[in-house]
Amino acid sequence: MKNKYKIEELQETWLELERAGIPLEPKEYRIGFAPATECRQLLIDQDGNEMSNRVFPLHKNRGMAWMLSLIITSNLAGKMTITRWDLQFPWDLESCLVWPEDPKDMVPPHKSYVLTEGLRFPRKLVLNHHMYEKGVLTRGSVLRGLLIGYSTSPIPKEFSDGQPVSLKLTVFDQLSRPHWQELKAWIERPSEKPGIDTERMPEEQLVEGATAA
User: Fold this and answer.
1) How many CB atoms lie within 10 A of CB 9?
2) What is the DSSP string of 109-120?
3) Are residues 61 and 153 in contact, defined by beta-carbon separation less than 8 angstroms?
4) Cα–Cα distance list, 22 to 16, 88, 121, 167, 181 (Å)
5) Cα(120)–Cα(198) distance, integer angstroms
6) In terms of Cα–Cα distance, which of 75, 76, 66 is closest to 168?
7) Fold held by 41-206
8) Which residue from 29, 36, 39, 153 could staple onto 93, CB 3.0 to 4.6 Å apart?
9) Contact by Cβ (8 Å): 72, 41
10) CB-based burial of residue 40 (10 Å sphere; 0-12 exposed, 13-18 middle, 19+ buried)?
11) Whole-model pTM?
């Protein structure tokens, strides 16, 4: 376990140097990075537009929430199992990330994820529950849908409405190997944030052709 965290710290250090514009050798020669062929065992691509890739305040500004439209493809010979999601923001969080539980596992079962008051996502459009036995991928398997979550940490005031921000998504597999990708999302700061019922929004506004189920 200690080695895993040391590798993650090394990788984050390399990324910070890259963002600072410091010239570096190719990733395959850096300590902490696997060769390129191994780094791409899980392909993570972003889909949609600003509407389906955003970070916004929770109701009454009690934190923030996010939604990311993704296409995840396994490029590994054999099986891979997703075991954990992690997301890093360009600011420090005061509290942990919360990934809503699978509504199908609730008692009684529900058809939609509930992110916050009045904010619901049909389960078939969401990727969150694709972990462990529900997250087994074979080579060529594709997951497409929304990754949603929230935190009680607010969006810092210096990030304005409509501003694009870089996020780092890391997907961990059954061997605790990190598969990461830099993503982009847009800050949404409505003057008043009413509950948005995403069940009533056209699916194409959330994610086009979602196949996650």
Assistant:
1) 10
2) --SEEEEETTEE
3) no
4) 9, 21, 41, 20, 20
5) 5
6) 66
7) Immunoglobulin-like (2.60.40)
8) 153
9) no
10) middle
11) 0.73
Contact at 8 Å (CB) between 133 and 210?
Answer: no
Q: What are residue 68's DSSP bridge partners?
A: 147
For the chain, domain boundaries = 1-39, 41-206
**Intra-chain end-to-end CA distance of the chain, in Å:** 32
One-letter amino acid of 189:
R
In the chain, alpha helices (H): 2-19, 36-39, 203-206
| Per-residue burial over 157-187, b = 16 or more CB atoms within 10 Å of its CB, e = otherwise | eebeeeeebebbbbbbbeeebbbbbebebbb
Side chain identity at residue 212, one-letter code: A
Kindly report the backbone phi and psi dihedral angles of residue 65, in degrees, each rounded to the nearest multiple of 5, phi listed first. -135, 165
For 122, phi and psi rounded to 5 degrees?
-55, 135
Query: Over its length of 213 residues, how does the chain's per-residue pLDDT go in tens digits?
Result: 344 445 667 777 877 887 787 877 665 555 555 544 344 789 999 998 999 999 999 877 789 999 999 999 998 888 999 999 999 999 999 889 999 989 999 889 999 998 876 688 999 999 999 999 999 999 999 999 999 999 999 999 999 999 999 999 999 999 999 999 999 999 998 764 444 444 444 454 444 333 344
